[in-house]
Structure formats: structure tokens, C-alpha cells
Amino acid sequence: MLGHWVELKVRYFRVVSAVRFWVEHGPGRVPHPWVRRMRVRPSAHPVLAELVAQITARPDRYALFSDFDGTLVEIADRPDQVVVPADLAINLRRVWQMLGGALAIITGRPLRQVEAYIGAAGLEASGLHGIEFNFPLTAGGSPPAPQAPRALVSEVVKVVAAEPGFRLENKGAILTVHFRQVPAAGGRLKAALEAIIERLKLDHHLKEGRAVIEIIPNGTSKGTALAEFLRRTPYASRIPVMMGDDKADEDAFAVAHEAGGLGLKVAGEHFRVGDEPFRHAGEVRAFIAALAAHSR
Predict the structure, then answer these.
(1) Which of 102, 173, 79, 175 has the alpha carbon at shortest distance from 131?
(2) DSSP 124-146
(3) Residue 131: CB partners within 8 Å, gap ≥ 6?
(4) Which segments of 95-193 are extended strands (E)?
(5) What is the Cα–Cα distance from 244 to 278, expressed in whole angstroms?
(6) What is the pTM of this model?
(7) Are 173 and 217 contacting, i.e. CB atoms less than 8 angstroms apart?
(8) What span, in angstroms and rounded, lies between the C-alpha atoms of 196 and 23?
(9) Which residues pair with 264 in a beta bridge?
(10) How far, in Å, CA of 250 to CA of 252, rounded?
(11) What is the C-alpha separation between 112 and 109, in angstroms, rounded?
């Protein structure tokens, strides 16, 4: 197994190098024979082709995890404005079948929202940065998600009201402030929210995303969510592959790396082109579709 992991890492870094060359010089120039072999067809992304080959060769060795916004679907101005392709749930379900159920969603959204979009796929999932799971965590079932302290909500509402470009999304346990309309105000917003947490002496922390800042209870993250999945069947003892697009996903990347797996980044405000395998969510969906084609 160790030898397989070493081979996988070598292949991964070769793929990243190929992507960087491809982005800089265009798909028409291929510098090495091993890069040429990865170009299955002119439109294929090198990472997609390589990882599809790895995973479909031994699907029982892999567990696949994905963020939702910015990874499976493009970021929208408002969370309720995301566009979900009609075939996404179908392809996710096919990949789930190929992997023997080892495919899950890890998101900062409440689970009810994700299930409204791709519930037909029947996947296991974690929402609110590891607070919610759609399976029982104990024999008595998963406890209801806690609500953010009233004093915190009141103070954040005041901050948001003072800046027309801010927008508050109350997720219950987590408060999310969007500032996409006023990107230059992100630093000022972060300072104001840090001051609130300090003043109220709350057991919370800030997590920055793509034009958002979230106030999250301590002790939970996308990393803790991934770790929970890896303790359970069918994910345990498999190589985890996590896909994500922003800073919050880095916690899950770290857990995946520690378990001998991979963290696959999607370009955007946080990850830049050339530093990641996927340039946008459309390439992630193409990767999912390519895997799904092998499950038929």
C-alpha cells in the first residue's frame, strides 16, 4: 500500500507540473512524453485524465469528498442563486455506486439547502463546517445544531446595517457575512467581527471564504467533518481525495494529506490559476462525469 501511495504522489506532482505548463503555454505544446500520454483527447484536462485512470483502476481504494459552492457549482452573488446542472445529481450517484458508497459532500451550507439541490444523489454529507451530518452520530441520533448566541447575532446585525454592501446569512449555529458587493471592505469587516468575539468572550472563531467571513463555534471545521467520515465505513482505510475552492477547505486538505490522500484545489479568489488542478467548477463536474462514465 505504501508503494502505491508513493506512486500516486509522484503521478500527482507530475500532473500539477503538466497543468502549469499547459496553462502558461497552451494545450498545443507538450514538453514530455509522459505529459503526452495523459492527453486522452484535446479537450481533456490532464488532472482529470490521470485521476480518472487511477480511481477507476481501483475504486475500492479511494474515498471522494467535495465541497459544494465554488467546487461542484459556480459561486453566485447569493447562495440561493446557484445554478445546478440537471445531470449533476445523476453523475454523483453513479460515482457513489462505483466507489461503493465512498463519496460525500462537506460544505459550509446547512444540509437542508444542499439536499434541495442534489438530494436525489442520495449521498452522505456534512453541513455547517462539521456541525451537521445526515447520518446519526450516536445511537440516539444526531443532536440538533445549536443556535448562535443572541448577543452575537445582535452585534453582527449592527455591523452589517452600517455597510450597505454587507449581507448577513444566519445559518443558525454559524453566522456568515457576505461582502462580494464591497470587496475592499473585507479587512474592515474582519476587524469588526474579531472585536465582537473578543468583547463577548465567545468560544468562536472566524473563517474566511470567497468574499465571505463566517463566525464558527470552536472545535468544528471541514477538517473535523472529513475525520469523522474516515472513521466510518466505507471511507475508513481508503485514500481520501478532497476537492475544494477556499480557505475553509484547507482544514479538510490537511486531514486528507495526513491520511495519505490528496487535496485538489479549484481556482477562484483564494486559489490562483497555476496552483491547483481545476480552473473552475466546470472542470470538477467534468471530472465527476468522466468517473460516472466508468460506472455504467
Answers:
(1) 173
(2) EEEETTTTEESS-SSTT-PPPPP
(3) 145, 146, 173, 174, 217, 220
(4) 103-106, 124-127, 132-133, 167-170, 175-178
(5) 10
(6) 0.81
(7) yes
(8) 43
(9) 243
(10) 5
(11) 8
- Is 67 considered catalytic here? yes
Q: Is residue 262 within 8 Å of residue 256, measured between CB atoms? A: yes
Predicted confidence at residue 140, as pLDDT, reads 58
Report the pLDDT value the prediction gives residue 295, as an integer from 0 to 100.
79
Q: Concatenated DSSP letters for 247-287?
A: TTHHHHHHHHHHTT-EEEEB-SSSSPTTSSSBSSHHHHHHH
In this structure, are residues 18 and 38 in contact, taking their beta carbons and an 8 Å threshold?
yes
Measured between alpha carbons, how far is 290 from 48 in angstroms, rounded to an integer? 8
Q: What is the mean pLDDT of residues 224-238?
A: 97
Question: pLDDT tens, 137-173?
Answer: 655 555 677 899 999 999 999 999 999 999 999 999 9
Q: What is the spatial distance between Cα 100 and Cα 121, in angstroms, rounded to a whole number?
A: 14
- Say which of 60, 67, 69, 77 is annotated catalytic: 67
Question: Domains plus CATH for the chain?
Answer: 46-130+220-293 (3.40.50.1000), 150-217 (3.30.70.1020)
Q: Say if residues 193 and 177 touch (Cβ distance below 8 Å).
A: yes
